[in-house]
Design a protein that fits this description.
binds magnesium ion, 3 domains, binds adenosine-5'-triphosphate, two-stranded antiparallel sheet, 14 strands
């Protein structure tokens, strides 16, 4: 048997899964596209996660698109991060231009344009319907990450969150967190937290507060609040097709820490809320993480551990996660080792760093009877990739250089008017457009502080009265007595800030009475 025939036989045997699959393309051997050597990705293995890597412009985003399209067709909802704002075209059928038709023909796969149901979301609420999260659901580790806190500071944040949970104080937005932090550092709560979780130092608390304020000034704190995004809304279907939810972050691209952490948090919400299902015939949801290097760059250990765990555990909930990035070396090994389906586009070897990344990447592939891996990786064209997936038994398939099919929808954004109509015409607009401000930690604590100040004032006023009876010479007005009492009591507890606050409240109270 010739090399070509052997190649076709091997590929079509190992990439021929039982059950539904995604058609990726056909094998390439010595520069020739061999349409019979079909490369398929079994749907039941999508929850074993994946990697789409390659140098810039090699076709990663379009690979992601063509996989998302076929998932939608199979009734599987998809979540994808739209970093450049150029994926909304998924809604519109593509145009059969000669290049696309030719690509289809070479693969014996006629190009049939099609659009798909999409939902448009954004974190700022400006480029799509808002996807908000509450501070408490975001959690201290993630928050510590976006605030760039050290381990000690993150630990303090964790104690504050725990206190809020134990005392039923809803932490919805930044106002709640700031209020609670103050309350526990040098307010009436300081003693309580000291006994249970340890004292919070003024300087640590000050640093956290400063960083919270800095983030607020960057106009991104609106992400935290209500109405919180319900993850059930990621599971929509229209006419049997899975809805593709796009999170457009093109307007906050310069905040990589923020959106990557937000995404991870969304994943952990999914994990918490979905039941165990084991291995299904097809996944419940597939999540594509574009520009995944942003998630891992300079990440502290606690954060990496969290990513690694979520990725490992979410599989049994029927959720697949695909990371998209330039080089596999952008992904920590503990995560990379869990990515069973790999689509590796061309890598460049221009710089010593490139060469190093190439060498490391080559090492992660098994030997091939047909290719020299490093040669193939540097010579692949646009829309071609070196592929290995898990077959329907969970065994890695041999690597195949693959000529990929084209996406069927538009490769780019829809026009601004259509975009706007898609946003405002969606049920997600009705549900999430308005913010809700329910009674949460900041209001509850505000009331507690008022009560505390009034009680302290009353106590001291009573004492003053007794003293005054004995020594009538130093009479005070009720306001003076209350103010003084509040100030001394609170100042004694080391709560200068609170004393000022209490004074303000008391002044307002007495002003109203007059
Ligand atoms: N499967 C494909 N079928 C047809 N054309 C493709 C395919 N993949 C890539 N292309 C073409 O290559 C161009 C670049 O692809 P793409 O935007 O996916 O690259 P990328 O790797 O995501 O780049 P970047 O790193 O800059 O994000 C596309 O605009 C498209 O014209
Ligand atoms: Mg891209």
């Amino acid at each position: 048997m010739g090399n070509k025939a052997k190649f076709i036989e091997q590929v079509s045997t190992s990439y021929n899964p039982k059950g539904a699959f995604i058609f990726l393309g056909a094998g390439l051997l010595d520069g020739e596209i061999l349409a019979q050597a079909k490369v398929n990705l079994p749907l039941k293995m999508m929850n074993r996660h994946g990697l789409i890597a390659g140098a810039t412009g090699t076709g990663k985003t379009r690979t992601l698109q063509l996989i998302a399209e076929q998932l939608s067709d199979a009734g599987v909802p998809v979540f994808l991060l739209d970093v450049k704002g150029d994926l909304s075209g998924l809604h519109q059928a593509g145009e059969a231009n000669p290049a696309l038709v030719e690509r289809g023909e070479a693969l014996e796969w006629p190009f049939e344009p099609s659009g798909f149901p999409i939902e448009l979301f954004s974190l700022s609420g400006k480029a799509g319907n808002p996807m908000r999260l509450t501070v408490e659901d975001f959690g201290p580790v993630m928050l510590g990450r976006i605030l760039d806190l050290n381990d000690t500071q993150t630990g303090v944040l964790a104690a504050v969150f725990k206190y809020a949970e134990d005392t039923q104080l809803p932490l919805i937005d930044f106002a709640d967190l700031k209020k609670l932090l103050g309350y526990l550092t040098d307010g009436p709560g300081a003693a309580a937290i000291k006994d249970t979780y340890g004292r919070i130092s003024g300087s640590t608390s000050g640093t956290i507060l400063r960083k919270l304020v800095a983030l607020e000034q960057q106009d991104v704190s609106d992400i935290f609040g209500e109405k919180e995004f319900e993850i059930d809304d990621l599971f929509g279907r229209v006419d049997g097709k899975g809805v593709i939810s796009l999170l457009n972050i093109s307007d906050i691209q310069d905040q990589p820490m923020l959106f990557s952490t937000f995404l991870l948090s969304l994943l952990s919400q999914l994990f918490k809320n979905l039941p165990e299902v084991g291995d299904l015939d097809k996944p419940k949801l597939v999540f594509f993480f574009e520009e995944a290097h942003l998630l891992f760059k300079d990440a502290p250990k606690a954060f990496l551990t969290q990513v690694e765990q979520i990725v490992r555990l979410i599989r049994s909930k029927g959720v697949g996660v695909f990371f998209c990035t330039q080089s596999p070396t952008d992904i920590p090994e503990s995560v990379l080792g869990q990515l069973g389906n790999r689509v590796q586009h061309a890598l460049r070897a221009f710089t010593p760093n490139d060469a190093e990344a190439l060498r490391k990447t080559v090492k992660t592939y098994p030997r091939s009877d047909f290719y020299e891996i490093d040669r193939v990786l540097t010579s692949l064209g646009t829309g071609q990739a070196l592929i290995t997936v898990l077959n329907d038994k969970g065994i890695p398939t041999e690597v195949v250089a693959t000529h990929l099919i084209p996406p069927r929808a538009v490769m780019g954004p829809v026009d601004a008017k259509t975009y706007d109509q898609l946003v405002t015409g969606s049920p997600m607009y009705t549900k999430y457009h308005e913010t809700v401000d329910r009674r949460s930690a900041s209001e509850i604590l505000e009331d507690k502080l008022k009560q505390h100040a009034v009680e302290a004032a009353r106590e001291t006023a009573a004492r003053e009265k007794v003293k005054g009876k004995a020594r009538r010479s130093t009479r005070q007005t009720p306001l003076e007595a209350a103010q003084k009492a509040a100030t001394t009591t609170l100042a004694r507890e080391g709560t200068k800030l609170l004393a000022r606050l209490a004074n303000g409240i008391l002044t307002a109270m007495f002003r109203k009475k007059r």
